Design the sequence.
């Protein structure tokens, strides 16, 4: 296995700092630096690019991002045990790594990237237990286009399939609508359980999301309410699943469905993203 830098192998780093992965933090460490380099490059050249990383752990992906040319990496790590290992990486790449100790779900992203020059991307092997809430938060960013140029993120394969799904797919749901509305999302490659320590019980997938410059006009809150109601009772027809919601918003459901070209007997999984956006606007 080729070395991407002269720092110690990750297994040695984990042993030295006693960094056994914690299930409570959703940790599964990637130790193959060739694989982390592949993830780092999945979003394109890193020359002149700043990267936000969440949950770097012992720093496998962090090292790959820096070795592949990232201008600066801003890493958010909740596990204080990992800070010493990350400090060693920061010393190896002077002035190019900033580590913030804290919970990514509570992060003030504009504040964390303030002062960086050049484009910013998000690249992360996300802790599984916070991956979906983090993504939804980024997809709801206001104003849009967002502060990030793209997102290259690792998810459980099942979640990844939901992110990229359309109405033609069985995995289509609220996450697919939100992601499809504001981004172009694709699964780049899969990662087997054996690549991780400890190995998870499921295959993982790397997803690349590129923000749409001009997504269809809508507010995230309106789209979330519509999709929550529709997919919350996905076996029911729209005239039933949206009945209570339409009344609460003061909208005429029958008129809204007619205006958006949707049949009352359709179910949520048959409705494309653009139609959900139009319906959310009609009922708002």
Sequence:
């Amino acid at each position: 296995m080729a070395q991407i830098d002269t720092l110690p192998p990750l297994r040695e780093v984990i042993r030295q700092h006693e960094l056994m992965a914690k299930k409570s933090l959703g940790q599964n460490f990637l130790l193959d630096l060739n694989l982390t380099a592949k993830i780092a490059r999945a979003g394109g050249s890193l020359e002149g690019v700043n990267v936000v990383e969440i949950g770097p752990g012992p720093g496998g992906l962090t090292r790959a991002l820096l070795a592949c040319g990232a201008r600066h990496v801003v890493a958010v790590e909740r596990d204080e045990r990992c800070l010493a290992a990350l400090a060693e990486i920061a010393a190896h790449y002077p002035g190019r790594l900033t580590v913030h100790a804290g919970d990514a779900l509570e992060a003030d992203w504009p504040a964390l990237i303030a002062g960086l020059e050049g484009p910013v991307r998000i690249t992360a092997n996300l802790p599984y237990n916070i991956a979906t809430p983090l993504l939804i938060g980024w997809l709801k960013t206001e104003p849009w286009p967002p502060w990030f140029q793209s997102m290259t993120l690792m998810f459980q394969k099942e979640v990844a399939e939901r992110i990229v799904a359309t109405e033609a797919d069985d995995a289509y749901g609220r996450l697919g609508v939100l992601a499809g509305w504001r981004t172009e999302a694709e699964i780049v490659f899969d990662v087997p359980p054996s690549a991780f320590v400890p190995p998870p019980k499921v295959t993982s997938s790397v997803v690349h999301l590129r923000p749409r410059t001009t997504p269809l006009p809508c507010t995230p809150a309106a789209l979330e309410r519509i999709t929550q109601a529709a997919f919350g009772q996905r076996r029911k027809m729209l005239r039933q699943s949206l009945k209570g919601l339409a009344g609460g918003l003061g909208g005429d459901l029958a008129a809204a469905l007619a205006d958006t070209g949707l049949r009352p007997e359709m179910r949520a999984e048959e409705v494309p993203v653009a139609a959900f956006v139009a319906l959310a606007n009609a009922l708002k």
Remarks:
- The two ends are 56 Å apart (CA to CA).
- The longest strand covers residues 183-191.
- Residues 187 and 207 are 4 Å apart (CA to CA).
